Amino acid sequence: MIRLLIAFSLSLALLVLASLAFGDVSLTWMELYHSLGSTDQQSSMIVHDLRLPRVLLALLVGVALATAGTITLAIMRNPLAEPGVLGINSGAAVTVMAVIVLVRDPPVALLQAAGFCGAAAMALAVFTLAWRRGTSSLRIILIGIGLSSLATAGTTFLSAFGEIGNVQRAMIWLAGSVYDASMVKVRLLALWLIVPLTLAFSSARELDLIRFGDSTAKSLGQPADRIRGLMIVLVTVLSGAAVAVSGLIGFVGLVAPHIARRLVGASHARILPVAALVGACLVVAADLLGRIILPPIQFPAGIVTGLVGAPFFAYLLWGRRHGC
């Protein structure tokens, strides 16, 4: 376990250094080294003002999405579940689309607030409608899918009748990217994630119990409905914050927990830290690849994760088909 954490930490460090060095203007390792300790060079400006906030924001977004995905898999007891199943992504998408299309030159802070509020409202609606003398993962999944379809229809309506320039800006946001990162965003997201990440990591035992089903969890003294509700709040806070600053970066919450489970087993005390590191590596690597594949064109990180996540999702479906 310790060796695995060290290996992923080193991989993440190498990805961070590569993200700082490579881009439209590539830096040698010596130039990168000097730029990290200097403030009056052009390379220092590129590193400190442009690339460092971007890579740090990608790292935090990856940690948040991976942790939220790990919690979702546990409470839904479905290997194909991710935060999008709760309607969080669709709720954020439709509210941000509405703000961009209906409000002239909306500030970035308003977009972030709209994305988070939309995600929270959708999660609340799903949990409320799924409540029937308690909750069940099946009802939550079915209602989440239904409300997500409704929100997607609203997004399509806005894109069809909105002003073309505003719609294009909204589509760029929906693709998922950290290109407009700043240290202010990094600090705010880091502060926002401290409490939910601490609560998530301290809830490993509760996630282990609820994963066995409500009957088993209740027989062992766990208030399963209350725990599921609290976990949904954590998922909303984590995913909503990540979506608010980066747009929709899909499949990280699905891929990272499965990789972690394959490597360390079923204990969430082991899965959570490994999944967080895997998620950080995935988003940082996706942002790096999006910048260096066809420069100066920059592909959003959400497109790159989609290219990786879609085959992985198909692999999971194939495994379920054969009873794996």
Automatic annotation (TrEMBL):
Keywords of the record, alphabetical order, are: Cell membrane, Membrane, Transmembrane, Transmembrane helix, Transport
Which lineage ranks, top first, belong to the organism behind this chain?
Bacteria, Pseudomonadati, Pseudomonadota, Alphaproteobacteria, Hyphomicrobiales
Q: Which residues form the signal peptide?
A: none
Phosphoprotein is among the record's keywords: no
Q: Which InterPro entries match?
A: ABC_BtuC-like, ABC_transptr_permease_BtuC
The record ties this protein, via CDD domains, to: TM_ABC_iron-siderophores_like
UniProt name for this protein: Iron ABC transporter permease
Family in the record: Belongs to the binding-protein-dependent transport system permease family. FecCD subfamily.
Pfam hit, one: FecCD
Q: Which GO terms describe its molecular function?
A: transmembrane transporter activity
User: Where is it mainly found?
Assistant: membrane
What's the protein's topology in the membrane?
Answer: Multi-pass membrane protein
**Keyword set includes Transmembrane:** yes
Its GO CC terms are: plasma membrane
A GO BP term here is: siderophore-iron import into cell
Segments passing through the bilayer: 55-76, 83-103, 109-131, 138-161, 181-201, 230-259, 271-290, 297-318
